[in-house]
Amino acid sequence: MKGTSVGSLAIIPARAGSRRLPGKNKRNFAGKPLVQWTIEAALDSSEFSCIVVSSDDLDVLSLVEKFPSVLFLERDPRLSSDSATSVDVMLDVIDRVGAKFQTVTLLQPTSPLRDSDCIRNAFSFYRSCGFKQVVSARDLKENVNHLAVVTDGKLNRIASDKLFMTEGSSLVALNGAIYISEFDYFRAMKSLFTESTTAFLMEALISIDIDYEDDWQKAESVALALGKAK
Domain spanning 8-139+170-225 has what CATH number? Predict the structure, then answer.
């Protein structure tokens, strides 16, 4: 067991630039700015002693100011490029906050359907799973024998043995919603995927990760159908 989540840091990355969906973090999603869904989910979960939004967008700063308990850190331009990784941003936030926590969690704004209950359930799973890191995912229901890759127009089936599937294995798709890590372990490993990482499964319906406009439309339709719109 890993103890309680008191002393947990949440990091919400919300840079201004986006090649596919410019300004997405402040764009209205089902009644409020996209990033606000994740801020409120983090607050409502009561799992975090410190919530930080890292952004180079001053419009996001104006939004964060509505939440006095949430810290805004203006991101260095070098961490706002397409080449900067989430791990780079997390390490920067950790260094600048300058405090020690039990866990660090990455919550990406592109998963607005991940709510406070989901965060609490992920932490409950983390505390009992025996792994140092938990990454959210959805179960892939597809038969592995039905998977294929199209390369230059040619369809190539993927042999199941190439997936290294063994008895007791399951095929999952990472959904980008929640990444929980033991704090000191993350600082040492500088990675969210190690030998001590396991998957926390979420329902497919709320696992939509917004990368493209059609993802946005689909996620917003689900939010409306679930009565989440504001």
Answer: 3.90.550.10
Dist. CA 14–CA 107, nearest whole Å: 10
Do 114 and 219 contact (CB within 8 A), yes or no? no
Residue 187 has pLDDT above 60, yes or no: yes
Instruction: Return the minimum-mean-pLDDT range out of 79-88, 161-170, 183-192, 221-230.
Output: 161-170
Across 117-126, average pLDDT: 98
| Residues paired with 136 in a beta bridge | 200
Contact 13, 54 (CB under 8 A): yes
**Residue whose pair of structure tokens reads 């890292």 in the numeric block:** 54
d(CA 42, CA 214): 26
* Annotated domain spans of the chain: 8-139+170-225
Alpha carbon of 84 to those of 17, 24, 78, 151: distances in Å? 12, 18, 7, 28
Q: Which residues of 189-222 are buried (b: 16+ CB within 10 A; e: fewer)?
A: beebeeeebebbbbeeebbbbbeeeeebeebbeb
